[in-house]
Design goal:
The protein is an alpha/beta fold. It has 2 domains: 66 residues, Nicotinate-nucleotide-dimethylbenzimidazole phosphoribosyltransferase (CobT), small domain (5,6-Dimethylbenzimidazole Phosphoribosyltransferase, Chain: A, domain 1, Orthogonal Bundle), CATH 1.10.1610; 275 residues, Rossmann fold.
């Protein structure tokens, strides 16, 4: 708990004064005011987060956190939970969607075992981008009791903090991703509790289940909430009773990034659930978060609206892994380059529109 408390204590507001300075520069670049829309908003946000009027986005790291969920035993996913471990190996061998898109934007992928339901063994060449932070071999079945203990919930967040701190000194921008069969079930439960929205409104098809399976999934979540009665005001209670180890780890990465003044791009629904936990622990993290995209999962949009985050992309993605966040990283980098590399009217000897006589 000590590491979590220290991290929360170290999170401060972003630098709004520097945001104003960035706005002044943007207004004097060789373009009409506000003509680059969200790119300008992003550039200001990154400047305010980093406390740097000329930020540099060079070292990009995507943290893909993996864990299994006991609730998978309830038949809420189209895939068996063995797929979680299989996909971790795929990540480490560079064959997954996240690997392709990370290479595209020049980012490194760090795969973290937060609670995969199998013992992972790999070659030395695969281990360089892998961190073993396993808490248990998956959570318990939340439809039969709490998914984890409160102590495990704290450990999952602190493990996320530890992973970020190990790489954080060289990170200019971070992103979060996930892997875990049945983790949309846990994310729907968290979203329902924290936002107060009905389970049916925040629960989607996940891996592509049919309508009958979706109805069953909704009933399983309702049962878990009625049985465990998570306290919406207590993020650790929510995480412990209906969450997942990778969701807690994502919350930890968000908190650690905010403490280190690093912008963090969140991926899809599972990352948004982690953001809800982080935000409930420390509301100031909101301004350090960039929503990479909005997925087709119903609860994702609701979670982002609750957090007051506007996604950069809407591409009907539902893969997870960090894929949407990877794509968004390139846009964030472009926004910073506009701020730092584009000429001003004065430096380019271009007449400013406001200088014209009418």
């Amino acid at each position: 708990m000590k590491r979590l408390k220290e991290t929360l204590k170290g999170i401060s507001e972003i630098d709004y004064a520097l945001m104003e300075k960035a706005q002044n520069r943007l207004d004097n670049l060789t373009k009409p005011k506000a003509s680059l829309g969200r790119l300008e908003e992003l550039a200001k946000q990154v400047a305010a987060i980093t406390r740097n009027q000329k930020p540099l986005i060079k070292n990009k790291v995507i943290f893909t956190l993996a864990a299994d969920h006991g609730v998978a035993d309830e038949g809420v996913s189209a895939y068996p939970k063995e797929v979680t471990a299989q996909m971790v190996y795929n990540f480490l061998r560079g064959g997954a969607g996240i690997n392709v898109l990370a290479r595209h934007v020049g980012a490194r992928v760090i795969v973290v075992d937060m609670g995969v339901g199998a013992r992972l063994e790999m070659q030395k060449s695969e281990a360089k981008n892998f961190k073993n932070m396993k808490i248990a071999y998956g959570t318990k079945n939340m439809a039969q009791g709490p998914a984890m203990t409160r102590r495990q919930a704290i450990k999952s967040i602190e493990n996320g903090i530890r992973v970020f701190e190990e790489f954080g000194k060289k990170i200019d921008i971070a992103a979060t991703g996930d892997m875990g069969i049945a983790n949309t079930t846990a994310s729907s439960a968290i979203t329902a509790v924290i936002t107060g929205r009905p389970v049916k409104e925040v629960t989607g098809r996940g891996t592509g289940i049919d309508s009958r399976a979706l109805s069953h999934k909704i009933e399983v979540i309702k049962k878990a909430l009625a049985l465990n009665r998570p306290n919406p005001e207590d993020a650790l209670d929510v995480l412990a009773k209906v969450g997942g180890f990778e969701i807690g780890g994502i919350a930890g990465i968000i908190l650690a990034a905010a403490k280190r003044r690093v912008p963090v791009v969140i991926d899809g629904f599972i990352s948004a659930a982690g953001a809800l936990i982080a935000h409930r622990l420390e509301p100031r993290v909101k301004n350090y978060i960039i929503a990479g995209h909005c997925s087709v999962e119903k609860g994702h949009k609701i979670a982002l609206e609750y957090l007051g985050l506007k996604p950069l992309l809407n591409l009907d993605l539902r893969l997870g892994e960090g894929t949407g966040a990877a794509l968004a990283m390139g846009i964030v980098e472009a926004s910073v380059k506009i701020l730092t590399q584009m000429a001003t009217f004065q430096s380019a000897a271009v007449s400013h529109g406001t200088d014209r006589k009418v």
